Protein backbone atom coordinates (compact mmCIF):
# COMPACT_ATOMS: atom_id res chain seq x y z
CA UNK A 1 0.00 0.00 0.00
CA UNK A 2 1.43 3.44 -0.87
CA UNK A 3 2.63 5.33 2.19
CA UNK A 4 0.52 8.37 1.30
CA UNK A 5 -2.66 6.28 1.13
CA UNK A 6 -1.92 4.66 4.48
CA UNK A 7 -1.22 8.05 6.07
CA UNK A 8 -4.52 9.45 4.78
CA UNK A 9 -6.38 6.45 6.20
CA UNK A 10 -4.67 6.83 9.56
CA UNK A 11 -5.45 10.55 9.70
CA UNK A 12 -9.09 9.95 8.75
CA UNK A 13 -9.52 7.29 11.42
CA UNK A 14 -7.94 9.45 14.12
CA UNK A 15 -10.13 12.43 13.17
CA UNK A 16 -13.26 10.27 13.33
CA UNK A 17 -12.40 8.82 16.74
CA UNK A 18 -11.73 12.31 18.10
CA UNK A 19 -15.07 13.54 16.75
CA UNK A 20 -16.95 10.58 18.19
CA UNK A 21 -15.29 11.14 21.58
CA UNK A 22 -16.39 14.78 21.58
CA UNK A 23 -20.01 13.92 20.83
CA UNK A 24 -20.15 11.10 23.37
CA UNK A 25 -18.73 13.24 26.18
CA UNK A 26 -21.21 16.01 25.32
CA UNK A 27 -24.10 13.52 25.42
CA UNK A 28 -22.99 12.14 28.79
CA UNK A 29 -22.61 15.61 30.28
CA UNK A 30 -26.13 16.43 29.05
CA UNK A 31 -27.47 13.35 30.83
CA UNK A 32 -25.63 14.39 33.99
CA UNK A 33 -27.39 17.77 33.84
CA UNK A 34 -30.81 16.17 33.18
CA UNK A 35 -30.68 13.63 36.02
CA UNK A 36 -33.39 14.33 38.66
CA UNK A 37 -31.80 15.98 41.71
CA UNK A 38 -34.01 14.10 44.16
CA UNK A 39 -32.29 10.87 43.10
CA UNK A 40 -28.91 12.36 42.17
CA UNK A 41 -27.99 15.25 44.48
CA UNK A 42 -25.01 17.47 43.86
CA UNK A 43 -23.54 19.20 40.87
CA UNK A 44 -23.54 17.52 37.46
CA UNK A 45 -20.20 16.02 36.55
CA UNK A 46 -17.95 17.24 33.75
CA UNK A 47 -15.24 15.39 31.87
CA UNK A 48 -11.64 16.15 32.75
CA UNK A 49 -9.40 15.64 29.70
CA UNK A 50 -5.81 14.68 30.46
CA UNK A 51 -3.25 14.30 27.66
CA UNK A 52 -0.58 11.64 28.02
CA UNK A 53 2.50 10.72 26.00
CA UNK A 54 4.04 7.37 25.14
CA UNK A 55 7.87 7.43 25.18
CA UNK A 56 8.07 4.87 22.35
CA UNK A 57 5.74 6.93 20.13
CA UNK A 58 2.35 8.58 20.25
CA UNK A 59 -0.03 9.17 23.14
CA UNK A 60 -3.62 10.07 23.76
CA UNK A 61 -6.16 11.91 25.86
CA UNK A 62 -7.82 10.32 28.88
CA UNK A 63 -11.33 11.66 29.58
CA UNK A 64 -12.79 10.95 33.03
CA UNK A 65 -16.08 11.94 34.61
CA UNK A 66 -17.02 11.25 38.23
CA UNK A 67 -20.57 12.50 38.51
CA UNK A 68 -23.91 12.14 40.22
CA UNK A 69 -25.55 9.99 37.49
CA UNK A 70 -22.39 8.34 36.21
CA UNK A 71 -20.37 7.17 39.17
CA UNK A 72 -17.46 6.68 36.79
CA UNK A 73 -17.26 7.22 33.05
CA UNK A 74 -14.10 7.08 30.98
CA UNK A 75 -13.98 8.08 27.31
CA UNK A 76 -10.48 7.94 25.84
CA UNK A 77 -8.76 8.43 22.49
CA UNK A 78 -5.27 7.29 21.62
CA UNK A 79 -2.77 7.10 18.78
CA UNK A 80 0.31 4.97 19.39
CA UNK A 81 3.01 3.83 16.99
CA UNK A 82 6.47 2.34 16.82
CA UNK A 83 8.18 -1.03 16.33
CA UNK A 84 6.37 -4.25 17.22
CA UNK A 85 8.27 -5.66 20.18
CA UNK A 86 8.62 -9.32 21.07
CA UNK A 87 5.99 -8.91 23.77
CA UNK A 88 3.57 -7.18 21.39
CA UNK A 89 4.10 -9.92 18.80
CA UNK A 90 2.24 -12.28 21.13
CA UNK A 91 -0.96 -10.46 20.15
CA UNK A 92 0.22 -9.52 16.62
CA UNK A 93 1.84 -12.78 15.44
CA UNK A 94 4.37 -12.51 12.67
CA UNK A 95 4.78 -8.74 13.05
CA UNK A 96 7.81 -8.56 15.35
CA UNK A 97 10.24 -5.89 14.20
CA UNK A 98 7.72 -4.27 11.86
CA UNK A 99 6.16 -0.86 12.44
CA UNK A 100 2.69 -0.60 13.93
CA UNK A 101 0.12 2.17 14.24
CA UNK A 102 -3.03 2.03 16.36
CA UNK A 103 -5.69 4.63 16.99
CA UNK A 104 -9.11 4.35 18.55
CA UNK A 105 -11.73 5.46 21.01
CA UNK A 106 -12.73 3.42 24.04
CA UNK A 107 -15.19 3.97 26.84
CA UNK A 108 -16.65 2.42 29.94
CA UNK A 109 -19.58 3.65 32.04
CA UNK A 110 -20.47 2.59 35.59
CA UNK A 111 -23.70 4.38 36.60
CA UNK A 112 -24.72 5.21 40.16
CA UNK A 113 -28.22 3.75 39.70
CA UNK A 114 -28.19 -0.07 39.62
CA UNK A 115 -31.19 0.06 37.28
CA UNK A 116 -29.09 1.78 34.60
CA UNK A 117 -26.85 -0.80 32.90
CA UNK A 118 -23.11 -0.43 32.63
CA UNK A 119 -21.73 -0.28 29.11
CA UNK A 120 -18.49 -0.68 27.19
CA UNK A 121 -17.66 0.39 23.65
CA UNK A 122 -14.53 0.73 21.58
CA UNK A 123 -13.59 1.07 17.93
CA UNK A 124 -10.05 1.06 16.58
CA UNK A 125 -7.89 1.05 13.46
CA UNK A 126 -4.59 -0.84 13.51
CA UNK A 127 -1.79 -1.12 10.97
CA UNK A 128 1.14 -3.51 11.29
CA UNK A 129 3.60 -3.81 8.46
CA UNK A 130 1.58 -3.87 5.26
CA UNK A 131 -1.59 -5.12 6.95
CA UNK A 132 -4.39 -3.03 8.45
CA UNK A 133 -7.71 -3.82 10.07
CA UNK A 134 -10.53 -2.49 12.23
CA UNK A 135 -11.84 -3.82 15.51
CA UNK A 136 -14.23 -2.97 18.27
CA UNK A 137 -17.82 -3.38 19.29
CA UNK A 138 -20.16 -2.56 22.13
CA UNK A 139 -21.67 -4.63 24.92
CA UNK A 140 -24.22 -3.93 27.63
CA UNK A 141 -23.96 -5.13 31.23
CA UNK A 142 -27.13 -4.87 33.34
CA UNK A 143 -26.17 -5.47 36.96
CA UNK A 144 -29.55 -6.68 38.24
CA UNK A 145 -30.57 -10.27 37.56
CA UNK A 146 -34.07 -9.09 36.65
CA UNK A 147 -32.62 -7.19 33.65
CA UNK A 148 -30.06 -9.74 32.41
CA UNK A 149 -32.33 -11.77 30.13
CA UNK A 150 -32.00 -11.51 26.35
CA UNK A 151 -35.72 -10.67 26.32
CA UNK A 152 -35.37 -7.75 28.76
CA UNK A 153 -36.29 -4.40 27.17
CA UNK A 154 -32.80 -2.90 27.33
CA UNK A 155 -31.28 -6.01 25.76
CA UNK A 156 -33.83 -6.01 22.93
CA UNK A 157 -33.24 -2.39 21.91
CA UNK A 158 -29.47 -2.63 22.31
CA UNK A 159 -29.22 -5.69 20.08
CA UNK A 160 -31.53 -4.06 17.53
CA UNK A 161 -29.25 -1.02 17.38
CA UNK A 162 -26.17 -3.17 16.81
CA UNK A 163 -27.96 -5.16 14.12
CA UNK A 164 -28.96 -1.95 12.37
CA UNK A 165 -25.29 -0.91 12.34
CA UNK A 166 -24.23 -4.21 10.73
CA UNK A 167 -26.96 -5.02 8.22
CA UNK A 168 -26.33 -2.27 5.63
CA UNK A 169 -22.76 -3.53 5.21
CA UNK A 170 -23.23 -7.31 5.14
CA UNK A 171 -26.22 -9.52 6.03
CA UNK A 172 -24.03 -12.02 7.89
CA UNK A 173 -21.99 -9.65 10.04
CA UNK A 174 -24.46 -9.17 12.88
CA UNK A 175 -24.95 -12.88 13.55
CA UNK A 176 -21.19 -13.46 13.28
CA UNK A 177 -20.16 -10.59 15.54
CA UNK A 178 -22.98 -11.12 18.04
CA UNK A 179 -21.87 -14.74 18.48
CA UNK A 180 -18.26 -13.59 18.80
CA UNK A 181 -19.31 -11.12 21.53
CA UNK A 182 -21.19 -13.82 23.45
CA UNK A 183 -18.14 -16.07 23.26
CA UNK A 184 -15.65 -13.34 24.12
CA UNK A 185 -17.44 -11.66 27.05
CA UNK A 186 -17.77 -14.91 28.97
CA UNK A 187 -16.24 -15.68 32.34
CA UNK A 188 -15.14 -19.26 31.86
CA UNK A 189 -14.07 -19.66 35.49
CA UNK A 190 -17.64 -18.82 36.59
CA UNK A 191 -19.40 -20.33 33.57
CA UNK A 192 -21.46 -17.18 33.05
CA UNK A 193 -21.65 -14.26 30.59
CA UNK A 194 -20.46 -10.82 31.67
CA UNK A 195 -23.62 -9.13 30.43
CA UNK A 196 -26.21 -9.50 27.69
CA UNK A 197 -23.69 -9.07 24.86
CA UNK A 198 -23.74 -6.88 21.78
CA UNK A 199 -21.18 -7.23 19.00
CA UNK A 200 -17.43 -7.79 18.98
CA UNK A 201 -15.08 -7.86 16.00
CA UNK A 202 -11.32 -7.91 15.54
CA UNK A 203 -8.90 -8.04 12.59
CA UNK A 204 -11.81 -6.97 10.43
CA UNK A 205 -10.61 -6.50 6.85
CA UNK A 206 -13.11 -7.41 4.16
CA UNK A 207 -10.79 -6.18 1.42
CA UNK A 208 -12.79 -2.94 1.09
CA UNK A 209 -11.29 -0.33 3.41
CA UNK A 210 -13.99 2.26 2.79
CA UNK A 211 -16.77 -0.20 3.62
CA UNK A 212 -14.98 -1.39 6.75
CA UNK A 213 -14.41 2.18 7.93
CA UNK A 214 -18.07 3.04 7.25
CA UNK A 215 -19.12 -0.02 9.26
CA UNK A 216 -16.91 1.01 12.17
CA UNK A 217 -18.34 4.53 12.07
CA UNK A 218 -21.87 3.09 12.11
CA UNK A 219 -21.05 1.05 15.21
CA UNK A 220 -20.01 4.26 16.96
CA UNK A 221 -23.12 6.10 15.77
CA UNK A 222 -25.37 3.24 16.89
CA UNK A 223 -23.86 3.34 20.37
CA UNK A 224 -24.21 7.13 20.59
CA UNK A 225 -27.86 6.82 19.60
CA UNK A 226 -28.99 3.91 21.78
CA UNK A 227 -27.15 4.13 25.10
CA UNK A 228 -28.31 7.65 26.07
CA UNK A 229 -31.87 6.49 25.28
CA UNK A 230 -31.48 3.54 27.66
CA UNK A 231 -30.09 5.85 30.36
CA UNK A 232 -32.96 8.35 29.98
CA UNK A 233 -35.49 5.53 30.18
CA UNK A 234 -34.00 4.15 33.40
CA UNK A 235 -32.53 7.10 35.31
CA UNK A 236 -35.83 8.18 36.91
CA UNK A 237 -36.28 4.77 38.56
CA UNK A 238 -35.49 4.63 42.30
CA UNK A 239 -33.38 1.81 43.70
CA UNK A 240 -33.05 -0.05 46.99
CA UNK A 241 -30.05 -0.94 49.19
CA UNK A 242 -30.50 -4.50 47.95
CA UNK A 243 -30.18 -3.30 44.36
CA UNK A 244 -26.96 -1.48 45.25
CA UNK A 245 -25.58 -4.60 46.91
CA UNK A 246 -26.34 -6.66 43.80
CA UNK A 247 -24.70 -3.98 41.64
CA UNK A 248 -21.48 -4.01 43.66
CA UNK A 249 -21.21 -7.80 43.52
CA UNK A 250 -21.88 -7.86 39.77
CA UNK A 251 -19.16 -5.23 39.30
CA UNK A 252 -16.73 -7.76 40.72
CA UNK A 253 -17.35 -9.90 37.64
CA UNK A 254 -16.36 -6.89 35.53
CA UNK A 255 -13.02 -6.68 37.31
CA UNK A 256 -12.42 -10.40 36.92
CA UNK A 257 -13.07 -10.29 33.19
CA UNK A 258 -10.89 -7.26 32.52
CA UNK A 259 -7.92 -8.67 34.42
CA UNK A 260 -8.19 -12.24 33.16
CA UNK A 261 -9.51 -12.06 29.60
CA UNK A 262 -9.78 -8.57 28.12
CA UNK A 263 -7.70 -8.14 24.95
CA UNK A 264 -7.86 -4.35 25.07
CA UNK A 265 -6.34 -4.30 28.54
CA UNK A 266 -3.56 -6.66 27.43
CA UNK A 267 -2.91 -4.72 24.21
CA UNK A 268 -2.70 -1.41 26.06
CA UNK A 269 -0.30 -2.73 28.67
CA UNK A 270 1.90 -4.52 26.12
CA UNK A 271 2.13 -1.45 23.86
CA UNK A 272 3.15 0.85 26.68
CA UNK A 273 -0.16 2.67 26.92
CA UNK A 274 -1.28 4.92 29.75
CA UNK A 275 -1.90 2.66 32.76
CA UNK A 276 -4.45 5.00 34.36
CA UNK A 277 -6.41 5.11 31.11
CA UNK A 278 -6.20 1.34 30.57
CA UNK A 279 -7.35 0.50 34.08
CA UNK A 280 -10.02 3.21 34.18
CA UNK A 281 -12.46 0.48 33.07
CA UNK A 282 -12.43 -0.81 36.65
CA UNK A 283 -15.56 0.10 38.65
CA UNK A 284 -15.03 2.69 41.40
CA UNK A 285 -16.63 0.62 44.17
CA UNK A 286 -16.96 -3.16 44.10
CA UNK A 287 -17.67 -6.05 46.42
CA UNK A 288 -16.82 -9.73 46.65
CA UNK A 289 -19.12 -11.34 49.22
In words, what does this structure look like?
- This protein has 289 residues and is α+β, with helices and mostly antiparallel strands.
- The protein is 40% helix and 26% strand.
- The protein is built from seven helices and nine strands, in the order αββββββααβββαααα.
- The protein has helices at 3-34, 153-166, 173-184, 209-234, 241-260, 263-270, 275-278, and strands at residues 48-53, 58-65, 70-83, 99-111, 118-128, 131-141, 186-187, 192-193, 197-204.
- Strands 1-2-3-4-5-6-9 form a seven-stranded antiparallel sheet. Strands 7-8 form a two-stranded antiparallel ribbon.
- The longest helix has 32 residues, at 3-34.
- The protein is globular and about 60 Å long.
- It starts with a helix and ends in an 11-residue tail after the last helix.
- The mean pLDDT is 94.
List the defining traits of the structure above:
289 residues; alpha+beta; seven-stranded antiparallel beta sheet; two-stranded antiparallel ribbon; 9 strands
